[in-house]
Amino acid sequence: MSELSVSSRELEGVVLLYPSGFINAHTVSTFEDELQKAMGGGRFRIVVSGQDLRYVASAGLGALMGVIEEVRSHGGDIRIAELNETVRNIFEMLGLNHLYRIFPSEQEAILSFRESASAGTRTA
Amino acid sequence: MSERRKAKPAVVLRVPSGTEFLATIRDTTRRMAELAGCEATLAAQVALAVDEASTNVIEHAYRGARDRSVELRFTLAGGELRIEIVDDGTPVDPRALPQVDLRRYASEGRKGGLGVHLMGRIMDTVTFRRTARGNVCCMVKRLGASEGREVR
Fold first, then answer.
1. What CATH number is associated with residue B104?
2. Under a CB-based contact definition with an 8 Å cutoff, are residues A6 and A18 in contact?
3. Among A38, A83, A108, B115, fewest CB within 10 Å belongs to which?
């Protein structure tokens, strides 16, 4: 079994990334490629859905940190959903839960983009 | 001599310095942590800390050279799990490691230093020293303790 595979799909203008396995220094380029693929296509509303993500090392967190400003500068965001306890604890230990919005479910993460868009429309 | 100093490594693992061996390191560490009585989430976190330390050896001490080796020595004694990661590459000065400021990291797209920070958060102590065997990163998880803090 490969240590990491990343599938993706698009729903309601949001790119959903599904990393499956382990993200560390050995596998992080696979994850970075998928992030870049989404951004390269001009898609900056991204949800990383961690339902099959067993473990993420600092290399993976660094991959997220490395692109978040660019994503936000294009009016988008990277939101995180469905983390298992191990991965959620890692995010919390580093305080990444203050930098990224983390949702219990993928649906809530997708919906949050819709809400952000309507809030933007209302305040425009 | 204290009981701790008498303790012999229960398991010694030596792997080549390639990131493809991080999975072997992770699986062995997780199993050792489970044998020490850690529940699954904590065992996975300890495995992560050791993954980070081993990655540092490969990327910094060996600068990506794949023809070296990383040795891990696991000792379970005195109510603690002690893991030493030994290399003979360039010594790392932990005092030179950057302090982690997440917002600054994000705004500057920086990545370095997160791993050592994570090691310190997971383990009870993390120390670096130079010995006749080489550079030794020693990480201790006290069994029953919930959270670590000390990196020196």
1. 3.30.565.10
2. yes
3. A108
Sign of the CA dihedral with B121 first, then B113, A7, and A5 last: negative
Residue B151, chain A, CB below 8 Å: the answer is no
* Mean per-residue pLDDT over chain A, rounded: 92
- Write out pLDDT tens, residues B101-129: 777 776 776 666 789 989 999 999 999 99
Is the predicted pLDDT of residue A46 greater than 70, yes or no? Answer: yes
Q: List the structure tokens of B112.
A: 């370095």
Task: State how many domains chain B has.
Answer: 1
- Could you report the per-residue pLDDT of A69-97, keeping only the tens digit for each? 999 999 999 999 999 999 999 999 888 99
Asked if A3 lies within 8 A of B45 by C-beta distance, the reply is no
Q: In CATH, what number does A4-107 get?
A: 3.30.750.24
User: Would you call A69 and B109 a contact, using CB atoms and an 8 Å cutoff?
Assistant: yes
Pairing of strands A102-103, A77-81: parallel
Q: Going by DSSP bridges, is the β-strand pair A45-49/A77-81 parallel, antiparallel, or unpaired?
A: parallel
Question: Rounded mean pLDDT of B25-30?
Answer: 97
SS3 assignment, position B127: strand
B3: enclosing H helix or E strand: helix B3-6
pTM of the model: 0.87
Residue B40 Cα, gap to closest chain A Cα (Å): 9
